[in-house]
Amino acid sequence: MTIPQSAESHEPVADGPRRVGRRPVGVEASEAGTELLPETRRALLRRLAVGQAEGRAPSMVGAVVREGRPVWRGSRGSVEGEASHGDVQYRIGSLTKTLVAVLVLRLRDEGLLGLDDPVGQHLKGTPVPEATIAQLLSHSSGLTAEPRGPWWERTAGELRPEPADLFDERPQRLAAGRRHHYSNPGYALLGAVVERLRGGTPWYEVLRGEVLQPLGMARTTLSPQAPHANGWAVHPWADALLPEPAHDTGLMAPAGQLWSTADDLCRWAAFLLRGDDRVLSASTVAEMRTPAVPPEENGWDAGFGLGIQLVRREGRRLAGHTGSMPGFLAALWTDPEEDVAAIVLANCTSGPAVSTIAAELAGIVTTYEPRIPEPWRPLSGPLDPELLALTGPWYWGANPHALRLRADRELELAPLSGAGRASRFRAEDDGTWTGLDGYYAGETLKAVRNEQGAVSHLDLGTFVFTRGPYEPSGPVPGGVDPEGWRV
Description:
It contains ten helices and 21 strands. With 487 residues, the protein is an alpha+beta fold.
């Protein structure tokens, strides 16, 4: 057995992730906070070292992304007698699902499918035709957790040559749409849908052309390519290793087949934080992070979006995924509020708490070096005076709210005192706005005008907002007492 080696780097990855967002004008790299302090780097390396030692991993690689680019990478242990590094491939298991989900969302954004479409509409012959695309993405279809036959992760995919071969006589274990129930075969079906709607092109070839190449992820492959780590099982009672098999899983590959590197996953993490219009817009990536099903067994500390796991750690909301295959463990967590992400890869079947380690790597950066907000800037382009006139205080009954104008004619409505309902609104071509979040998500905001053409009130899903508290001249539902306010 080789002596574990270690390495640390905080240099940007060569040919690193393309900047999804541009650096603010007049902000230098050091000011933008891309360089970590020595104390931060040491804390990161120590956390990785403790995780590798306590978890007894033959090798472990960790990396941190901040503001769209990698800022630290470290490793412990060895691969083929040398310290591991950011270009060494590891099997990433169910992190594969996040990439497959992006392919599906691309199809949705192109209008080739709808999230509410039953899978049978696009994939003939499946024994579960009524499960919807959204349910498959969010693991709420109720499908069986694993395919039939021997343990799929350690057997060849030829055992299940057709989609129908993935299921036994009872493919549905729970009622669809009622609760979260993780389903690996569900993602096999999604991979088949991608192939069907891309004219029979294998899902990985679609992934390579539409996602991996634009993002510069050349080292994310279906089969291992040197340099790569070998997968090991670690004996529970002795410091001994057993090699694990690495079969091609065939139809199950979209559930966990891919191999990748820390460098490539830094690119992926940057994309999951900011989006990239060449692949998927920032708004659709944010949609993937929106909870789609009730919380899992961990109460309100865990959930699932569209291909994305959601967890809450020490008050921070993280989005990403964990992964495991025989001989490998992986975790990638993003913290969108802090614009930071962390990745951990290890080549052992069990032992290291890679999910916790990755979450704590991200937490170290946000604790030691809190994010510096980007500078305020005025709106660009001509200012619409009618929109500007809408801004300011509005009252829902006697409750004061403020309406603010944002970029791209977007509006933001929020209460001025106490708890209340706040939402952002997207401008539509017909002169209305659609709620983007909060209670009013999907609801329509209208500026209602009187006979003279002046705005008399705002109508928000039947809620009336007037310029004064219970304004007598406003169309307040139920009317206003004619004697008005009194003491």
